[in-house]
């Protein structure tokens, strides 16, 4: 069973690397990520993947596998809730049912709150790490949105007015 789990994990990790590279490059070209995350070092190694690997190494050194799995589960629940909440804004285009989206959001939030209290009691270091990760992620996102060239705050600070938004490679 351990060998099977090892191959499954290796396969999932490997299959996630290919789209992650293109995703980082696309999001950097669209201005959602800093341009440095869209670069490649030595024309091969994508900066976004190198940063992800560095964070993963840091987590693996500082936390047990159980704690890392707990952090990953909590982040997945947060992403599910946010994606469902975002879907509410475009439900007219997708034809999604409001009650079903509300149920999805409520389910994810209830499980997340239960998980948070259980983790806080049983693994306080993991709960603190999750809180730090969420705060750092939010701070980095807000900081980048404030500093990027096409943001209203950065455009107001620019001496020659707004800087045009970067164009995607496809048009």
Name the features.
75% helix; 171 residues; mainly alpha; two-stranded antiparallel ribbon; 2 strands
Q: Describe the largest sheet.
A: 2 strands, antiparallel
* Order of strands, widest sheet: 1-2
H/E element string? HEEHHHHHH
Tell me the β content: under 5%
Q: Radius of gyration, Cα only, in angstroms?
A: 19 Å
Helix content: over 70%
Structural class: mainly alpha
Number of helices: 7
Describe the global form: globular
Q: How many domains is the backbone divided into?
A: 2
Return the average pLDDT rounded to an integer.
82
Report the count of strand segments. Answer: 2
Ends apart, CA distance between termini: 48 Å
* Uncertain stretches: 155-163
Structure characterization notes:
The protein has 171 residues and is mainly α. The protein folds into 2 domains: 1-62; 64-156, no CATH class. The chain contains 7 helices and 2 strands. The chain has helices at residues 2-29, 47-62, 65-89, 91-94, 98-122, 124-147, 152-157, and strands at 40-41, 45-46. The chain has a two-stranded antiparallel sheet with strand order 1-2. Helix 3 (65-89) packs antiparallel against helix 5 (98-122), helix 3 crosses helix 6 and helix 5 crosses helix 6 (124-147). It is globular. The N and C termini lie far apart (48 Å).
């Amino acid at each position: 069973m351990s060998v099977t789990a090892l191959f499954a994990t290796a396969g999932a990790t490997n299959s996630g690397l290919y789209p992650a590279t293109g995703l980082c490059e696309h999001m950097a070209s669209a201005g959602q990520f800093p341009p440095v995350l869209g670069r490649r070092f030595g024309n091969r190694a994508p900066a976004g993947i190198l940063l992800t690997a560095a964070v993963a190494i840091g987590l693996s050194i500082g936390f047990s596998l159980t704690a890392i799995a707990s952090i990953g589960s909590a982040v997945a629940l947060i992403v599910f809730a946010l994606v469902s909440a975002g879907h509410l804004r475009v439900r007219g285009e997708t034809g999604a049912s409001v009650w079903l989206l509300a149920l999805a959001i409520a389910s994810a939030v209830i499980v997340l709150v239960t998980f948070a209290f259980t983790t806080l009691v049983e693994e306080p270091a993991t709960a603190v790490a999750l809180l730090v990760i969420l705060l750092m992620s939010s701070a980095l996102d807000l900081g980048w949105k404030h500093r990027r060239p096409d943001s209203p705050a950065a455009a107001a600070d620019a001496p020659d007015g707004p800087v045009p938004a970067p164009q995607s490679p496809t048009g």
